[in-house]
Specification:
Blueprint: H1 5-15, E1 18-26, E2 29-34, E3 39-44, E4 56-63, E5 66-72, E6 78-82, E7 88-93, E8 97-103, H2 110-123, E9 126-132, H3 139-154, E10 158-161, H4 170-177, E11 181-185, H5 192-199, H6 203-214, E12 222-228, E13 234-237, H7 259-264, H8 282-289, H9 294-308
Parallel strand pairs: 3-5, 8-9, 8-11, 9-10, 11-13
Antiparallel strand pairs: 1-2, 1-4, 1-12, 2-3, 4-5, 6-7, 12-13
Length: 309
Amino acid sequence: MKTSPSLYRAKKESSRQLKGRLVAHLGKALIVEDENGLTYRCQKRTQLEQPAVGDDVEWIKTEANAGRVEKVLDRKSLLSRPAKKGQTRPVAANLDQIVIIIAVKPAIDPLLLDQYLIVCEFQKITPLIVLNKIDLLDDQTRQNTSELTSLYQHLGYEVIEVSAAKKKGLDTLRTRLRNESSILVGQSGVGKSTITNALLPDLDLQTKALSKTSGLGKHTTTSSTLYKLPEGGDIIDSPGVNIFGLAHITEQTLAYGYREINQLADQCKYANCQHLKEPNCAVKDAVDKGAISKQRYLRYLKLRDKLVY
């Protein structure tokens, strides 16, 4: 009995199924690194979900230097950004930590910082807060900044102070990034690019190598790129991505993203307490007594209102 051409083709492709990791989106091209460290320009199978940089994938070679991504393997985490019509687009997968860059200038946006931390809590990814531009601190800004960073340190979040421009504190940051898969995020102007360049002395070489693999040139629009750190580990860079979607978080579940609120929630009288106007609310009592930051609580209410509407 003869094997049909389509079945023969399927068997042939299955026999050369390969493992790899998605290391870049360059234009419409997916750059996959194989188990030997070689990179290939790939397309995804038509019906395949959109993969994210950092994904472990199964793929097949279709040409000597090209291939097709067939399957996205199980993820331990996924970050997405807001897209059109309330949808989200994947940005990075399988992260160990999110490095949240804040700076002396522009002024720190505590609400945005909280949103990054909420994503970390829900995704169970370790957050690392990095305060950049400490060389610009004066007496007034130091006091204001110290009050804010002390609040987050009290909640158990690690804060590292650096000056990328003056190359201060970078060795401490390098130590925290070693052998980890990280993404750097932060509002515009905080110095994310300066920090990235300081951490990656061979950034230009890595970028050129990926551009050569893609065949698209170095000016191609980039969604996300994974760069390897000289000390071990890697950084995923996502230009223009300042915030990740809270699409799967509701006003009922938001409290989980606030450590201090979540820790007291089971002490409230009502199991479904939203910490608004309910009687015998342990969270509101803690706010009144100063055990929970009133400003953090007000930001919780503000984000909750956004999710409701």
